[in-house]
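Progress report, Aim 2. The chain analyzed during this reporting quarter is listed below.
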Amino acid sequence: MIGFYRIKKFELRSHHFTMIPSASWRPFSASDVVMMINRRHVLSALAGASLVPSRAFAHVVYQRSEIREDLSKHFADAGTVGTFVGYKIDDYLVIASDKDRSGEAKLPASTFKIPNSVIALETGVVGDPDKDVFKWDGVTRSIEAWNRDHTLRSAIAASAVPVYQEVARRIGAERMQKYLDLFEYGNRDIGGGIDQFWLTGNLRIDPVQQVDFVDRLRRGTLPVSKRSQELVRDILPVTTSGDSIIRAKSGLLGAEIGQPSLGWMVGWAEKGSANTVFALNLDVREPRHVADRMKLTQQCLTDIGAI
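Predicted structure tokens for the chain:
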């Protein structure tokens, strides 16, 4: 198969990218230094391409990879720094804006609402994302949309932290740890409090890991029921861009205390039958950078031909 190779009994410990001119590519030979992704990060080429029977086998499929330094210019033009990683499914092509920050693990903030939703549905903490209601606790918070009752669908749309903190408390530490281990989600560390570990605690995840997790959700290959995954895919916020659709969840570290410092955007773009999974994060240095998360995401997706 052109452009990637299957290697048996071989596991790689870290991911790196090869510098390639952005306007050109060629199939990698086995001796090329290509993107190294450990067994958790083989993205869709495993179950999606049916190359191996399970993620548990130590088989590695090489995707083509590129560093596109021109993508970093978008962050500089916005007066900040950040990173973008995109995985163009049909091309088996991973594109990153840089080789350093794309591998730096950070708190997931509200992007953790994606796995939190999956776990809530899988454990029965939430039975129906449109009917089960979380009553407002009566505490007035600075974000007005949080000061009301919510279903899971409305809570993820409003990125309502208090609702998802209650979801996590109902799931409990034992079940939460079980599913983060099953998902191989980031460093899997829920230290720091069951309702805080993704906000101020010990959980960390890097952009490549985000892409890996979201792609498995997109394909329905997480080790949970198809129903739970279908429902979460359905409740993800949708943004349209021309004839393309972006299904994504934002994250804003410090939003709940009014001191945003890091912004995330993770999800996938659909352009006709083509899909591109992505993760972006940036430093929030000014208030306008909060809105820039989607703006920069769309600029990067446009540059790589994903939308």
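The two ends are 26 Å apart (CA to CA). The domain at 6-303 is CATH 3.40.710.10 (Beta-lactamase). These observations will guide the mutagenesis work planned for the next reporting period.
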